[in-house]
Amino acid sequence: MRAADSIAAHFDRSREAMERAATDAELLDSIAEIAEAITRAFRSGGKLLIAGNGGSAADAQHIAAEFLSRMNYDRDPLPAIALTTDTSVLTAVGNDYGFDLAFERQVRGLGRAGDVLIAISTSGRSPNVMTALAAAKRLGVVTVGFTGEGPRDMAALCDHVLAAPSSSTPLIQQIHIVAAHAICTVVEDALFGGKPR
Ligand SMILES: O=C(CO)[C@@H](O)[C@H](O)[C@H](O)[C@H](O)COP(=O)(O)O
Ligand SMILES: [Zn+2]
């Protein structure tokens, strides 16, 4: 296949996945519920923790930056921390306790009841994401899972699940980041009055 055809096919698959997401009423409701949970946490002095591996680690950082810096307009910063960024913490915990606890230990150290954890796993079963969710549940942190379609071990540990309607990791990630932008927009508007964009 010519590179241009392969690229066009990639855009086509992405558009189809976005169309499935945009018309999935259950998915849109769950995204709205997640935005409400995050708004509630910020209003009561809680914070947002975000974890994920690989491309989803980048998404965790991207989402934290939207809240902490700004997304659509100038406003006060909102407390969001990506658990994927501190190489000293990640290597110390990985080296001393194992990679499966890389996020769990940060959740235990930083998480407080009323905070929200967004745990991103396209497969829904990465061990370090699962242990982070279990620790968050024990602490009374509201647990949100960003995942894909199909069987998801993480669902049992989540108060809210965003199940992107695809089984392809990159397409699931694309839906996650669109959903995260939508969530950040709804939260900004709820907390700061929805100034014009
Ligand atoms: O970005 C990609 C694929 O698009 C990869 O880096 C991907 O995130 C990694 O393979 C992750 O380790 C996958 O983990 P998970 O989403 O199944 O929890
Ligand atoms: Zn990727």
UniProtKB/TrEMBL annotation:
Annotated Pfam families: SIS_2
Localization per Swiss-Prot or TrEMBL: Cytoplasm
Binding site residues for Zn(2+): H62, E66, Q173, H181
InterPro entries registered for this protein in UniProt: GmhA/DiaA, Phosphoheptose_Isoase, SIS_dom, SIS_dom_sf, SIS_GmhA/DiaA_subfam
Enzyme Commission designation: 5.3.1.28
GO cellular component: cytoplasm
UniProt-annotated binding residues for substrate: N53, G54, G55, E66, N95, D96, S121, T122, S123, S126, Q173
Function: Catalyzes the isomerization of sedoheptulose 7-phosphate in D-glycero-D-manno-heptose 7-phosphate.
Protein name as it appears in the record: Phosphoheptose isomerase
Organism, scientific name: Rhodoplanes roseus
The encoding gene: gmhA
